Amino acid sequence: MDAQVESVAASYPANSSYKSAMDPLMEGFAPSWNQRTGEEDPDYESSLLRWWKETGEKLQAMYMEDDDSSVFELDVDSSAAGSPPNKIWFIETAWERNQDLRAVLEDLCQATREAWEEGYPIPSDLALANARFLLRAAFKYARLRYEVYPTPDGEIAIDASAGRGCSVLLLCESEGGVLCLVNMNGKLRRARFSDALRLPDGFVCEALDEMVLSEVTRT
Amino acid sequence: MTSAEDFAPSENLGRSVFSSRQAKRAIRGIVPFHVFLEKEGEPLISVDRLDKSKSQEALQIAQSIATSRDRTFYGWAAVTADVAASNGRRVTPSPQPGNPFHADIVLPAPAIEDRDEQKQHAQELATEAQWRGLDEVRQPDIR
Known about the structure:
The complex is a heterodimer.
Chain A: H1 3-11, H2 16-37, H3 42-55, E1 58-64, E2 70-75, E3 87-92, H4 99-109, H5 111-118, H6 125-141, E4 145-150, E5 156-161, E6 166-172, E7 178-184, E8 187-193, H7 202-218
Antiparallel strand pairs in A: 1-2, 2-3, 4-5, 5-6, 6-7, 7-8
Helix pairs in contact in A: 1-3, 4-6
Chain B: E1 12-17, H1 20-28, E2 44-49, H2 55-68, E3 75-80, H3 81-84, E4 90-93, E5 102-106, H4 109-113, H5 115-128, E6 130-133, H6 134-137
Antiparallel strand pairs in B: 1-2, 1-3, 2-5, 3-6, 4-5
């Protein structure tokens, strides 16, 4: 770990599981990170540590996915009074270092907690996974402003906006379906999909294209 | 459709927000659609007539409601009456004890029977909504 990471780690409250779990994680990850980017990322380790600090929970698993992203599963201790009953993630890839995407991915990580605090049904693992997939796919396709949040129906909403009057809403349902709602200045249309992994399809891409055009027109 | 004698097209109708997360998103520029989403089958969306009351008065009413629900009031997501009354919706005054400025946005029949349709109306209203946070509300009334 570099000096900055050491200082962040030093500020972390005493936690006996921290050193044993975090050190191998950092040793294994930092070199591959540098190989991929070819440069240092001073924020990466500290953001990981910040997450660790905020959640203060047990690290359940860390693994690499096919698309080279890393998933850190932190499982909240459901035996503790007042704790939400589900797990959250930390996800990172090279291109996800974009601050806007990182912010919404962090919101997605918090969605289970948010649902619990708001009194909503806890989103299913499938809804969360679909939302994560769709968010990254949508962000790659169109750099718009996105918000991610749980809904009273147990969905994860991916809300893309290009200012007042225009929005594309992707609702990832607990059973795996996705509802896409489009509003272009009062002109409404919608489509329902049973398989999120086939998205974004022509309907969704057309809506995102319209959003980008709308944003360009405004500016 | 509005009742012409009751609502000016530009009259602001505010949906109270009692969630800090929803308020933060609204401040960032995206009002979450479920701010305007009621329970399945519910045809009425409760709003406050912001232009009919003095800001401090409306704020006191909203905070009183929040207190009764053990919540905190953060502000309103406001739509104009003409937006509220478009796409088959209508607005109607519905004064209540303790809130003489209460009104309802009434959804059309298909939205009562179809949850997806109901969500689409919520999305449209949220997309058109402007955030009125406490900082703005606490400004002295100019009128």
